[in-house]
Amino acid sequence: MLMLAMVATASAALVQSLGGCQSAGGHTSAASMISMSLSPRVGSEGRGALLRRDLLQQTAVTAAGAAAASVLPLEAMAAPAFPKWKQVDLPIATESPILFDIDFDTGNPKNGFIVGNKGTFLETKDGGASWAAKSFANLDPDEEINYRFTKMSFLNGEGWIIGKPAILLHTKDSGSSWERVPLSPKLPGDPYGIIALGAGKAELSTSAGAIYTTENSGRNWKAQVRETIDATLNRVSSSGVQGASYFSGAINTIQRDADGAYLAVSSRGNFYLTYRPGDEFWVPHNRETSRRITSMGFVKDRLEDGLWMSTAGGEISKTTDSVDTQLINIPFERLQIKSGGYGILDVAFLPDSSQAWAVGGGGIIFESTDSGKTWQKDKSADDLPTNLYKIKFFNGKGYVLGSNGILLTTA
User: Fold this and answer.
1) Is 376 helix (H, G, I), strand (E, B) or coil?
2) What CA–CA distance (Å, rounded) separates 295 from 309?
3) Which of 97, 99, 134, 286 has its CA 20 to 30 A from that of 150?
4) CA 253, CA 392: separation in Å to the nearest integer?
5) What is the mean pLDDT of the chain?
6) Residue 161 and residue 152: Cα distance in Å, rounded?
7) How many angstroms separate the CA atoms of 54 and 62, rounded?
């Protein structure tokens, strides 16, 4: 019987590295540090044998459970939770790509896209039921495979994609055709975030903390922040934020909320920053733990409604109240999660619900039904050789993206 196997050394390296992983924006990422192999899948005869064995075991367990019903508490008799995620088959053209982002066109919700490294670009026209590999007509095939397409955004038929080496692509017809938008060689940092804001309008952020807006499809850009993050922090050396003085480098993650406020984490994970529309500078903040920050995000659509933070070793915390960005030390409370030391790389709190999901290294998935106070493990990806980097929901349907070309969706 063939069995799924994972290389032991890779597993050990995974536990060590994911706590302090860095992003694709020019820094070493967890994905680039870890290489895992997929053994052959179990054949049809093997599956049949497994099913027969599981049936016999289930029968035995059921009989034993009935005999002990009078002495066991109800909690001990509860059936194990079924996996809530399933893997989606993808037509991957390159070997073991990392999937970085997924988005659906608000003007045509059945039309969606996935981007990743090695030039990975996939499209669905049936709401994610099936996917097709695509390429960009204005990129040479030998050139395209060298790109890491990292972020994208769609709004009413208009879409934007960014990647590295520095590239910006734009569509006005829901992805039927794409044009390459020139980027200035003087751009501070690499493109790191992009948000579609309407016809010809978008907002671009960089790994240096620069923010620009365009209203003419990228022909001209207007700066929103007076200076980059390192310029601000080096000028204000007594900011009171550990690791912020004489800072040089880039940010690890950057996110924009529904109101245009931003959240960023320093590349070393030793502090984070916020920015609100109208501010001239980014505001740095201390982390309330000795562990370095792995990732951060918004609890809801607006920064002031709450933040979550994951730190090295697989810990998660959440702000205790509405967020006051003028505070250097914003209060967080630690949440109860047993991650086994694997890094938590992304968290999604569902709107108008007490449900939340967390994903990370080693294919770990956790679910919370009490707004993140406690977490339970979901085993959907336990047998998949992958690290899970992003989780997003569209109209109640969830998607998880990972390494080795893994895409999961709610079962």
Assistant:
1) strand
2) 6
3) 286
4) 16
5) 82
6) 4
7) 12
The token pair that represents 92 in the structure block: 């991957």
d(CA 176, CA 178): 7
Residues forming beta bridges with residue 274, ordered by sequence position: 263, 283
Long-range contacts of 118-126 (CB under 8 A, 24+ apart): 118/94, 118/145, 118/146, 118/148, 119/94, 119/144, 119/145, 119/146, 119/147, 119/149, 120/92, 120/93, 120/94, 120/149, 120/405, 121/149, 122/90, 122/91, 123/175
Give 271's strand partners.
Answer: 286
Element (H, E) at 112: strand 108-116
Under 8 Å CB-to-CB from 232, ≥6 apart: which residues?
281, 282
Return d(Cα 171, Cα 158) in angstroms, integer. 6
Q: Is the pLDDT of residue 161 over 90?
A: yes
Residue 160 structure tokens? 């934007």
pLDDT tens sequence across 86-107: 999 999 988 999 999 999 999 9
Which residues are CB-contacts of 184 (< 8 A; sequence separation ≥ 6)? none
Contacts 24+ apart (CB under 8 A), 104-108: 104/128, 104/154, 104/394, 105/154, 105/155, 105/156, 105/157, 105/159, 105/174, 105/175, 106/154, 106/155, 106/156, 107/154, 107/155, 107/156, 107/157, 107/174, 108/157, 108/174
Q: Which candidate, 231, 304, 241, places its Cα nearest to that of 268?
A: 241
Strands 251-256 and 85-87: unpaired
Residue 408 pairs in a beta bridge with 87, 400
**Which tens digits make up the pLDDT trace of 138-149?**
999 889 999 999
Taking the CA atoms of 338, 339, 341 and 347 in sequence, report the sign of the dihedral they define.
negative
Please give the radius of gyration of the chain, using alpha carbons only, rounded to the nearest integer: 22
Q: Which helix (H) or strand (E) covers residue 58, if one does? A: helix 44-67
Q: Tens digit of pLDDT for each residue in 324-353? A: 999 999 999 999 999 999 999 999 999 999
List, in sequence order, every residue forming a beta bridge with 198; answer none if it has no partner. Answer: 201
Structure tokens at 77: 């008799």
Q: How far is CA 372 from CA 102, 286, 293, 300, 315, in A?
A: 24, 22, 18, 13, 12
Place of tokens 């980014």: 282
217, 237, 235, 218: which is closest to 226 by C-alpha?
Answer: 235
